[in-house]
Amino acid sequence: MAEAPTTYRERLAQFRILEEKRFELIEELLDKLEKAEAKLAQTELDLHSEQNVRRRLQAEVVEAKERESALAEKQARRPFVLVLIDADADGFLFQDKYITRRVQGGESLADEVLIRIREYLRTLSEDADTLDIIVRVYANLEGMANFLVRQDKVRNLGQLRAFSTGFCGRISSFDWVDVGIGKEGSAGRKVRENLSFYTSNTHLRHLILACSPADLPASLVSTLPLDKMTLVESGPLPSSLTSLPVKTTKFPTLFIAPPPPKSPKPRGRTGPQLQLTQQENPDGGSTWLVIRPERSKSQGAALRRRGGPEDENSSLSISIGPDNTVSVDSGRRRRIMG
After folding, report:
1. Helices (H) and strands (E) in the chain, counts
2. Which residue among 23, 69, 207, 234 is the one 20 to 30 A from 39 at the CA level?
3. pTM to 2 decimals?
4. Full domain range(s) for residue 295
């Protein structure tokens, strides 16, 4: 155990040591206090910054909600459904009962289109009856008229123009656009241009598209809003379109069925074949070489059903004797040429 200081100087030295330690402690405490105050000040700044950010975010959220409400209100004012029809495409030619009746046929077609489209929309939306329906039909009237004249369905272009006029005049939102002749004015191009324009419209509720798959590649369809789009089927769609999550439907009361694909013509000879046989001559016992057309069973049955005699060419046979004598037998008379 250390000895206690005995003199005043020793005791004073001890007090000085204690005083120095006290100052060191005070310095350490002051240093920690200053650091704590600095952290507190920084924390207060961060807190104010976070508060400002939160207030700004809250203001932006409120503003976004107001814009969303305004947009929803604006969209609810006049939503519409767009129907695009390429009437030049196979399978999208309208029924004869409409085309052949001039103006009355066009008006009847407009009524039927409105009924069928509204009927289909009821399966998609509860407010289908309140939606505006816009119909755009694109076709080359002159080319269509020439085709229908050859089919004996219309007499001239004027009759088809009257039909399209009746269609447009029946309902104000229905239009028939004559795209004219030529690739640059094709109906398919017009349909694609309308797709790029209308699909960005906020008022568009649904799109119904009747167009040839050749003018509607899957690469284009995949860029469109598929959730509000329906493809009209006139024939089997290619797998590139059916693999997409897009709705499909049919309108058999509007369009005639597309013509069946032409079967390839059989190759090779299809005419009558010649049959070569030997026949014994009952008079002289000689052998004759007989050449006659070979008829199928179906051809023979057809002749028997008609009940008529076989024609001269079908029963013609040529016989060649051993001495090069030629006999021509037509079934009615026989000639021998030596």
Report:
1. 9, 11
2. 23
3. 0.57
4. 273-337
